[in-house]
Amino acid sequence: MPKTLFDNVWDAHIVRPETPDTPAVLYIDLHLIHEVTSPQAFTELRQRGLRVRRPDRTLATMDHSTPTTPRNALGIIPVIDPQAIAQLDQLRKNCADFGIPLFELGSANQGIVHVIGPEQGLTQPGMTIVCGDSHTSTHGAFGALAFGIGTSEVGHVLASQCLLQSRPKTCAVRIEGRLHPGVTAKDIILALIAKYGVGGGTGHVFEYMGEAMRALSMEERMTICNMSIEGGARAGMVAPDETTFEYVAGRPYAPKGADFDAAVARWRTLPSAPEAIFDKEMFLDASSLAPMITYGTNPGMGIPIDAPVPTPEQMPDPGSRQELDAALNYMKLEPGKPLLGHPIDVVFIGSCTNSRINDLRQVAHHLRGRKVADGIRVMVVPGSQQVKRQAEEEGLDTIFKAAGAEWREAGCSACLGMNADQVPPGKYAVSTSNRNFVGRQGPGARTLLASPLTAVASALTGVVTDPRTLLD
Amino acid sequence: MEPITTFAGKAVALPLDNVDTDQVIPAKYLKVTDKSGLAEGLFTVWRYLPDGTPNPDFALNRPEAAGASVLVAGRNFGCGSSREHAPWALAGYGFKAIISPYFADIFRGNALKIGLLPVTVDEETYHELLSHIEEDPETSVTIDLAAQQVILPGGRAVAFPIDNFARHCLLNGIDQLGFLMQQDEDVRSYEAASPITLNTHL
């Protein structure tokens, strides 16, 4: 039977096939870990007297509970929260005891786990990649099968380099047409989730395909794959192509010379056969999209930026009417009213969705020689120390600071309310992150998810602003 | 792990769709390096008023919900973050099973690993359960894992799907890591044949 990209990667990683009584034993090529979801897994290993099977296929970074405050006079990023200190110390000890390489807080390669994997060339087509983090789906942009796991499974992979998995279903996500100016990859994924819902992909692995996908850069494909989980799909994949190979080539952990050529030859065999059959299909016309923004408390509650907030009467069933009521009550937004022009308090540019160099360049381009609106806090948080260095080499930091924005150290920052970077209760934030759940960015925080372009347009005016107004 | 076979428990209803794991347990509780204190953070935004006192209107705080061990929840329960702290918090609070029309994939897998049963039922059964709980807040349901059945008040038995291997492990108190560790020989053969040469020790 003609195979999909997913089938090709899945089948190549079967250590023991699925039977009616046991799931497949799936080999994991790369295991990324961080401070939050790994400590209890190491405890389990110690209690059972187990070692880490492949420390050379494991890599740790510090990102979630870390501060992004500027370095002190000694060049150190100070951690003040005692619980965060203990968690980071525990990761340091676990990595030392089990021989796992660690990108320490503030060190040259540290950053958000889903930013550093790709930028270091660890993430490669055809691999299986897991991490105790749902946004592991990001790495699928390279044609890898990458998904988030819980801490029990982190322990499984540490000890055995394998996972027990039942084969998921596949879903072809066709994104045809060309994006209009001012509409970005972030708008594609927000529109897709708004159309099919936050549970639409449950039980499936997405494969994004079509004209619009082929035209995107690796960074843009990562933005889309990153939010697959927000559509309910544990993983999202894009077939590797010349754009992928060009991105991977020359990165520190990527194969070199003849090995690279051999790898590319292997990677060229991964894409889905033209006649491959998927369990389900989704479709989006990129040429019909406007910039998107969310108004509610899950990422599926999104609208074109010039559309009014939905009314309960527009909802198809009592469940979704109740959900909308609760969301608008939390967000203090009125049904039927436009979001455009709504005052905001904070703009957050960062997270594993939108903190890469292209995102920062786009923001800097529009901030150059301008000032953010009075009273608006604008946080620009690079996804990694490498992104930070590159941005500084290009002078982007000077532009951000001159415009009145904060230029911070690398980390997850205000995406998840786990460190000091939070949105105050009741305040509105236009955020380039991935989740607008109740309290996600801090207790009582009101999150409006959008693209970096919409974020910078809104930062300049202090109200929700259509990024197409920035275009010449 | 303790074997799970059949148990009966009081059911409490949380009939909201898309309850994400940030609602089950917010990120501020995730700074622990063990599993302590998570039950206190369960549904914290709904369970407590801004002054820190229990919210009397929240289902779990009503006196008749005391001792409940079965949560009847809306569609797509456990979406969002992969944090296993969510099932840890639910189990720590005393829940043994969650009944829902469907679960988010990662949550379902995490819950099965720790013996918190994710029980998927059809829409009709879901609504029937909600009606029972509304009429009688002391409603109890029986879950028979061996037979893969939920027995509703009144005696109707409804089958639920569960992965055979997970069911076997839960019934016998076997953990999945032990099974994985027995695959060592196959893993070695696989590794010897794999063309991927990645080394994180650069």
UniProtKB/TrEMBL annotation, chain A:
It is an enzyme of class 4 (lyase). Its cofactor is [4Fe-4S] cluster. Keywords: 4Fe-4S, Amino-acid biosynthesis, Branched-chain amino acid biosynthesis, Iron, Iron-sulfur, Leucine biosynthesis, Lyase, Metal-binding. PROSITE patterns: ACONITASE_1, ACONITASE_2. Pathway: Amino-acid biosynthesis; L-leucine biosynthesis; L-leucine from 3-methyl-2-oxobutanoate: step 2/4. It catalyses: (2R,3S)-3-isopropylmalate = (2S)-2-isopropylmalate. Binds 1 [4Fe-4S] cluster per subunit. Its EC number is 4.2.1.33. [4Fe-4S] cluster binds at C352, C412, C415. Residues 7-462 form the Aconitase/3-isopropylmalate dehydratase large subunit alpha/beta/alpha domain. One of its GO terms (molecular function) is 3-isopropylmalate dehydratase activity. Heterodimer of LeuC and LeuD. Belongs to the aconitase/IPM isomerase family. LeuC type 1 subfamily. Catalyzes the isomerization between 2-isopropylmalate and 3-isopropylmalate, via the formation of 2-isopropylmaleate. This is 3-isopropylmalate dehydratase large subunit.
Automatic annotation (TrEMBL), chain B:
The keyword Amino-acid biosynthesis applies. Pfam families: Aconitase_C (PF00694). NCBIfam families: leuD (TIGR00171), PRK01641.1 (NF002458). Residues 1-123 form the Aconitase A/isopropylmalate dehydratase small subunit swivel domain. Belongs to the LeuD family. LeuD type 1 subfamily. This is 3-isopropylmalate dehydratase small subunit. Its EC number is 4.2.1.33. The keyword Amino-acid biosynthesis applies. PANTHER family: 3-ISOPROPYLMALATE DEHYDRATASE SMALL SUBUNIT, 3-ISOPROPYLMALATE DEHYDRATASE SMALL SUBUNIT 2-RELATED-RELATED. It catalyses: (2R,3S)-3-isopropylmalate = (2S)-2-isopropylmalate. Catalyzes the isomerization between 2-isopropylmalate and 3-isopropylmalate, via the formation of 2-isopropylmaleate. It comes from the Bacteria. InterPro entries: 3-IsopropMal_deHydase_ssu (IPR004431), Aconitase/3IPM_dehydase_swvl (IPR015928), AconitaseA/IPMdHydase_ssu_swvl (IPR000573), IPMI_Swivel (IPR033940), LeuD (IPR050075). Heterodimer of LeuC and LeuD. Pathway: Amino-acid biosynthesis; L-leucine biosynthesis; L-leucine from 3-methyl-2-oxobutanoate: step 2/4. It is an enzyme of class 4 (lyase). GO terms for molecular function: 3-isopropylmalate dehydratase activity. The gene is leuD. Transmembrane segments: none annotated. Gene3D superfamilies: Aconitase, domain 4 (3.20.19.10). Keywords: Amino-acid biosynthesis, Branched-chain amino acid biosynthesis, Leucine biosynthesis, Lyase.
